[in-house]
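request received
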Amino acid sequence: MSVLTSAKEIRGPVGWYRDPWRKPRVLAGITIAYLVWSLLPVLIAVMFSFNDGRSRTNWQGFSFRWYWGDQSRSVWHDASLHTALFQTLKLGLLATLVTVPLGVLFAIGIDRWRGRLPAGANVLMLISFVIPEVLLAVALLFVVTSLALPFGLGTSAQVVGLVTYQIAYPAVLVRARLATIGRQYEEAAMDLGASQVESLRRVTLPMLMPAIFASTVLVFADVIDDFVLVRYLSNGSATEPVSVKIYNTARAAPTPALNALATLLLIAAFAAVVIGYLIFRRMTRNDETSGSGIAAFAGET
Amino acid sequence: MPRSREPSNRLWTVLAAPGIGWLLLFFLAPLYVVLAIVFGQRDPLFRTAVPVWNPLQWDPTQFTYVLTRIGPGEVYFPALARTVVYVGLASILCLCIAFPVAYYVSRLAGRWQGLLIALLIAPFWISYMMRMLAWVNLLQNDGLVNKILSFGGLFDVNVDWLTGQPVVVVLGLAYGYVPYMVLPLYAGLDRLSQSMLEASRDLGASRVSSFLRVTLPMCRPTMLAAVLLTCLPMLGDYFTNDLLSASPKTAMVGNLINDSVQAPGQTGQAGAFVMLVLVATVLPMIYYVRVTLRGDEVRT
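response:
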């Protein structure tokens, strides 16, 4: 009898616990629960953007009413909604166009230039990366409202703020990549007679291309999701992007058109990231020095 | 003597100059402007802030006005205490959720790893406002959460989730910021050396003790950095609160900043709160920078 019970025990929960080859079911369960918790609410919000009725909680049938069907309140017909979308995309493009070259050159410069000044600049850049966004936003708001600057509140102030907040992104990614490729290729080029500028342009920059490209996509996706900076530095409803629009109307009985607007932004961000990732994979196809997985793309290397 | 391997610094200076100039002009200088406004004057007629640029003429009235009101029992104390409690609870919650998830995806996921990473990164590219809007929809009085809790009308549950419930704010903060915790933890756990863990098991440590005595100590720096990366933005957060509660009963320091920035005549106070948050966050930020710089030295 006792032999039987002990065998039973080993097959029971204790045996399961002691089995070194058991599948990690608990952790898998937690992970799946986390993913459902983090993504399902958004999917439900997307679903209700296709709702045929005014409600965002009761499903009344599928339609494109809130995208273009409704003559006055759909995203297509309501000017305040599609201006917000265009403002978001405009800010995304402008801020990315300024941030990436600035950040890449900055990263190469402070990586190679030895001394106190570049070390201090590096610290400044890292602090700008982790400072609570609201602090920078209020500081810049004070600057724009209390100094006579060549630009006022609105798109230009928003772009300045976004560039300041995002410049660390390409800088960090490019510096990490510079550290992995090392200096030997550049030195080889210079030993073979290339000048400093030539070796930078024809050896280093091409090798940095995947990191530069990844940071372009990441900065764009981050900028179009930004809220704090663009809200403080906006100038009336004409320069309010989608995130501010959602903030202003989310608690004031909005229609599913707001969900539709948010969904369109979501599609824009995902299109940028997916296309970006596919191109990134092509770029790093034959490159052993950098990972080509999605984690490498997101800068987690 | 071989030809100098370190060519002149001039090229690097030229490359770095625009970025350094930008950061000085639009990052460091604005912080000085905040100081000039906090210690500046107020226009008696329009009640607008008048910055005073010379530090010798600074007037600490507005700053002491705020400073004397942050102690226990004063006007601003509840919001500051709430900030600490909410951010602390939300961070602990984030860590409890993010650590197992990151551990599973980085070490045990097998062939699903690529897909799981993509799903973990996805919330990054969904606008924060959209994610909060999703919860506003779910937590309406006739929303899905109340419907599920009432088991399809079986019980009469009519919880007003969106009117100043601290639980909702803390959960909302955790929901909003947990992706910022998962990714750094994933990167750190991914780098964890497998042979160390195997060695500890071979030398007789049980699963639990090898986790407690090898895994946890080895990823302590990563965990600290991950907690910082979530805590710091949370400290300035006001929009989660505005969307999920919109009640002064749950206001945090971010709400104090946001409300006083928009009120006429309170610009100086807003600046004082900004300085306060900056002082509170400057040590963690320096710690983060030091950890990052040390990581750079190891790598190069």
